[in-house]
């Protein structure tokens, strides 16, 4: 894995991480905090809240077992359903994926135990740069955020090289197995997506060097109870870098996805993965499968934990629309190429603002 000082990314400012900030967990546990500090007040448009709806029955569901081991007819339908979900929503739920529920719960518990380490122990993993392989902190990028977000996080690069904190005991081993299993699920989903685009099953995997060098990141998020949840956000509206992000949560909802200009509350099916498409799938598909914009809402009663595992191309791949999707000039490229490593650093060093980074590579 390239070091953060790789000259290929020097065209962007190497944003240093901020001084140690009080974690949201520590802030929320203070008996003196009955309202949020002004630095956490997020200016949400009142009209934005008015379009928040619930229609879980319409959120696409992909049966992973039919995609991988169904009859030819079942598999063909699953591939079609997967492609439709990517095109219409950029978001779907995956059921019957084969990852043991006990492993998912154990990793969730390990994440909680990490956040309950002392502030001093967690500061050992604060990191110095946005592309450090192990980094924990608060908000998104507190050195540039104009508004802080009610969230503590742990971000770890886990593939092609596995990094992980050595505390708490056993967390690294559990997470290694979990990341291996989620990587297998992601690669099968990407095969189905490749087929749904009219390409060979391994075309996307090969073109973006996902199997051997594709970046996989483990992100644990802690959203403690917020005394004024209507005034703050856990994460602002944004799309993810990479291809697909698989997410699980601890039974407390908070994920909201955008669909047809409206915000939709997501209530997960037990033991399912919540999956959203990323910016680089939008680029690769030449805009056919658009990355999903989503955000994290808060509550004042319980602590929400989510674990997101985004998977992307190799850091050194220049991602462009698939050549087979733009040949013959019928569908000219809608995006310019950018090395994934450069895109990742640019996004992680900036304020999250919808698809602001993706807009920079649109033609």
Automatic annotation (TrEMBL):
Ranges for the Fe2OG dioxygenase domain? 211-313
The answer to keyword Metal-binding applying to this record is yes
Q: Which InterPro entries match?
A: DIOX_N, IPNS-like_FE2OG_OXY, IPNS-like_sf, Oxoglu/Fe-dep_dioxygenase_dom, Plant_2OG-oxidoreductases
Q: Name one Pfam family in it.
A: 2OG-FeII_Oxy
Enzyme Commission identifier(s): 1.14.11.9
What does the UniProt keyword field contain?
Answer: Dioxygenase, Iron, Metal-binding, Oxidoreductase, Vitamin C
Could you confirm whether the keyword Metal-binding appears in this record? yes
Gene Ontology terms for molecular function: flavanone 3-dioxygenase activity; L-ascorbic acid binding; metal ion binding
> What Gene3D superfamilies does its record include?
B-lactam Antibiotic, Isopenicillin N Synthase, Chain
SUPFAM superfamilies xrefs: Clavaminate synthase-like
The UniProt entry's sequence similarity note says: Belongs to the iron/ascorbate-dependent oxidoreductase family.
**What name does the UniProt record give this protein?**
Putative flavanone 3-dioxygenase
The species this protein was found in: Rosa chinensis (China rose)
